[in-house]
Design goal:
It is a single chain. The chain has helices at residues 5-12, 16-23, 31-44, 50-57, 73-88, 101-110, 128-135, 159-172, 192-206, 223-234, 248-260, 292-308, and strands spanning 62-67, 92-97, 119-122, 141-143, 153-156, 178-182, 216-218, 242-245, 270-275, 286-289, 317-319, 323-325. It is an alpha/beta fold and 339 residues long. The strands form two sheets. A six-stranded parallel beta sheet has the order 2-1-3-4-5-11, with helices on both faces. A six-stranded mixed beta sheet has the order 7-6-8-9-10-12, with helices on both faces. Helix 1 packs across helix 3, helix 5 packs parallel to helix 12 and helix 8 packs parallel to helix 9 (192-206). It starts with a helix and ends in a 14-residue tail after the last strand. The mean pLDDT is 90.
């Protein structure tokens, strides 16, 4: 027999209304109780009756998600966490992968999500015209990238503060030749590489270190790109003694390049990443930890809350915590090394 909401409530030791609020991401339920209810619902195979709910509410019980690169770790992690929240609340996900300028232009020209979704989660940064197009849908909008923008609930981090902590750590260790591997060729309108580069330059200036353009390389926010960028930095006349990679995947590529050049980390070159990728601890990577999955889950919960409480006041921008995690890839420069 199919489990009912009352079955879930009895098994979880709560009321049916609490089950409903928890699975739809509404306020008034603690994270502990919400997790317990989600686990019980999954164990019993409970799903809300969409046909009845749709007739009563006029909803499609589908959330549209637009991403620039669905195959990349950051976006995949955000998407997976958000989908789990949506699924637990009885919603499906309609995914649009806008990885090329052509598909992106076509999507915003036709807006195929119109009348097909109850809300939209955007993992790309829309320009003014694209933002206006999404607002014209008349549904709740949320994002996990970029800063605050009208009509959107944005869940993100302070990219600048995170990058500053990474570069300042290298400066405090005594490094003066500090390179950076950025993502200048990342997704369209993506502000992350811009903010992290500004932080890099600011900390250098603060420490009285002259900026050397030769110590910057584009890693395309990929492992392969990070390896290529690190190779470029090593080919300069005065290679860096330390490198700040704007993502852990690029940092991993940098580590591979250093290993292939038979250089030791951190004895010859220190490396700092950004993200706290699931493999960062395995390889001992010093990095700036950000709650990637947490941003996706929080954005999803806030979207569901807007659907259930349309007249309530909702935050326009939510900033998640970040912190520097010290591991084995950073150390003071060798006295005999270039400074």
């Amino acid at each position: 027999m199919t489990a009912s909401i009352n079955d879930v409530a009895r098994a979880a030791g709560v009321s049916a209304s609490t089950v409903s609020r928890a699975l739809r991401g509404r306020a008034g339920v603690s994270d502990e109780v919400r997790d317990r209810i989600a686990a019980v619902a999954a164990q019993l195979g409970y799903t809300a009756s969409r046909s009845a709910s749709s007739l009563a509410s006029g909803r499609t019980f589908t959330i549209g998600v637009v991403v620039p690169y669905v195959g990349r770790w950051f976006f995949g992690t955000v998407l997976d966490a958000a989908e789990q929240v949506f699924s637990a609340a009885g919603y499906d996900v309609l995914l649009y992968n806008l990885g090329t300028p052509e598909t992106r232009k076509r999507f915003f020209a036709k807006l195929p999500v119109r009348k097909r979704v109850d809300a939209v989660l955007s993992l790309l940064i829309p320009d003014e015209g694209e933002s206006a197009a999404l607002r014209s849908l008349g549904v709740p909008l949320a994002s996990t990238v970029g800063g605050a923008r009208p009509g959107f609930t944005v869940v993100g981090i302070d990219d600048r503060a995170g990058a500053e902590s990474a570069v300042r750590h290298l400066v405090n260790l005594g490094h003066r030749r500090i390179g950076t591997i950025s993502g200048a060729s990342g997704p369209l309108h993506w502000t992350t590489p811009v903010e992290r580069r500004r932080a890099y330059l600011d900390v250098l200036a603060e420490a009285g270190i002259e900026h050397d353009p030769a110590l910057e390389a584009d890693g395309d926010y990929t492992l392969e790109g990070g390896e290529r960028a690190m190779t470029e930095l090593l080919a300069t006349s005065r290679p860096p003694t330390a490198v700040f990679a704007q993502s852990d995947e690029m940092a991993m590529g940098a580590l591979r390049a250093l290993r292939r050049h038979r250089l030791k980390v951190p004895d010859d070159v220190s490396v700092v990443g950004f993200d706290d990728h699931e493999l960062a601890d395995v390889i001992g990577l010093t990095t700036v930890a950000q709650p990637v999955a947490g941003q996706g889950a929080e954005a999803a919960r806030l979207l569901l809350r807007q659907l259930d409480e349309p007249h309530a006041e909702h935050p326009g921008h939510v900033q998640m915590p970040i912190h520097l995690v010290l591991r084995e890839t950073t150390a003071p420069p060798r006295p005999r090394g270039p400074q």
